[in-house]
Structure prediction request, 308 residues.
Amino acid sequence: MNRKISVIGAGNVGAACAQYLAEANLADVVMIDIIEGFPQGKSLDLTQAASIRGYNCAVTGSNDYKDIKGSDLVIMTAGLARKPGMSREDLLNMNADIVKTAAVNIKKHCPKAFVVVVSNPLDIMTYHMFKVTGFPTNRVCGQAGVLDSTRFRAFVAMELGVAPTDVQAMVLGGHGDTMVPLPRYTTVAGIPIGELISKEKIKELSERTRFGGGEIVKLLKTGSAYYAPAAATVQMARSILLDEKKVVPASAYLTGQYGINDIYIGVPVVLGANGVEKIIELKLSKKEMDDLQASAKQYKGVLAEIGY
Prediction:
């Protein structure tokens, strides 16, 4: 393989990312973690699965950041997971130092890489990554709306008993309880869900989406979601490395779009060989715009807590 992706953090999300990346034969994968033997063991396990699962890319593990050298793309998953009753924002101070260490090393060892941030609180950590690396904003983005939208898609598909792949959804805003599901831009094989589902049920599904991560945290009791977050992240990585030009909602840096400045938040973007190649401004209703700007305002306040 000529391409190289480094996954920082070999926990559940990082390991699932490495698995999906390998099975897509997208690039050679390096897993980095501070726990000695942990990334090495998981990468060896994935290597032993290669002949059965049909991939030929190399999967290796390391405890040394120097091994991310030359990466085309870095996926940042390291950080403490949420526990029941804990919001993404509760993780702020605990994860800011972890992201800072990673950012310094990304800048040192692979200064031309694209970075996709998964660590929570996601929009805050994506901004933090951008500031510490000093990378152009098109090369740093966060996996937020892709995950939130695929949750909305799943709930709509479950409600209607249709193929999840036939459902398209759009969720904007911060990757947290202030996210903004947009039922008007959600369809089943091109059919607006308003023609298939009652207003009351759509509101219920939107609320379930807003608290979708917390629902899984409560069920697991000892961790948080990882299959869907990893799948969403790998879709983003694939679109960048293969120049697929996918239109997805992701945490991107805004410079006046939607009346929002100097913050990372979930909006529709085009992901291609230049990373975030375009931010798409949807026509929002007054309430939708108010909700999006309120989400941004909340995250502005949180950024101040880590010195921005």
About this structure: The domain at 4-142 is CATH 3.40.50.720 (Rossmann fold). The mean pLDDT is 94. The chain has two domains: 4-142, 145-304. The longest helix spans residues 286-304.
